[in-house]
Prior knowledge:
Helix content is 56%, strand content 14%. By secondary structure, the protein is α+β, with helices and mostly antiparallel strands.
Amino acid sequence: MGTNFENSLPIYRLARAHPDWTPKQAATVVGAPEEAVREAVDLLLGAGLLNESPATSSGFVPSAPAAALSRLLAGELDDLDQRRERLTFLQAVVPSIIGELQSGQDQPGGSVHTELIVGAASISAALQDAAAEARTDVLSMYPGPNTPARQLEERRSRVADVIGRGVTVRTIHLTAATRGAALAQQLAQLGELGAEVRTAHTVPLQLVVVDDVLACTPVDTADGGSAALVTRGPALTRVFRRLFEHCWASASPLVQERIDPREGLRPTDQQRSVLQMMAAGLKDEAIAREHGVSVRTLRRSQCALMDKLGADTRFQMGLKAQALGWLD
């Protein structure tokens, strides 16, 4: 992982200095294989320092550092709130889960079998096998925003297969994560395939449940590598299902907004003022003071405005707002 972080900075510099860069050139610059370049690019995408763009030879375009870092800070503040909400949620439901698990183990057929799977390739293979076993439904939820494009494609393929066999698919994603263009597009594709997609402001853990026979959730390892715990047996799997259903009940159906100038959509006076002050180069602290709000509240409103415009960065938000005439 450390090597990927080290590779990310020279690749970002290359992207800013040479818009027509290619992954092969990046591999030469950092002295690493193209697989390492792809992993470093995934980190830059997750940080908002790179954005996908079909107009370039690399498929990516760099973001302005200040805009990307401002968005990261706002995201970290949101993440802190989500962690607090997640803790409150877990404090409320964990005692019930433990009670049900103990009760289930005391019943006939209540045995639980677990297996620790290590390595991204092994986890992917295990999920593929689990999808092949599905007969009734597949439930999943994902708390994080940063999912590599290849994992998204693998997931889309699995979902297409199980839905083709008449299996119901329901999935919950973190609302903040749907700001990313790649994930938003992939979730829209899942919906077109027939999956039910919802979003929630708090998702307590990453989880996949297949029927009442299997559950899979990531676990932390001492070396920071990829690992997942696969659980078989209805005693615990049904508890995971109840956890999912609890989250599903409070989640909202995925809504993808699109801004069309012909619809006459306009910002509020406050949003227009914020955009104009940002375009003039004022810092968030000064803008917040001018509007009588906290910096944290301002950044939340900026994130909401980015969602409204379908922008992944503050820089993109400014460009789209200008194109719509919102800065006039």
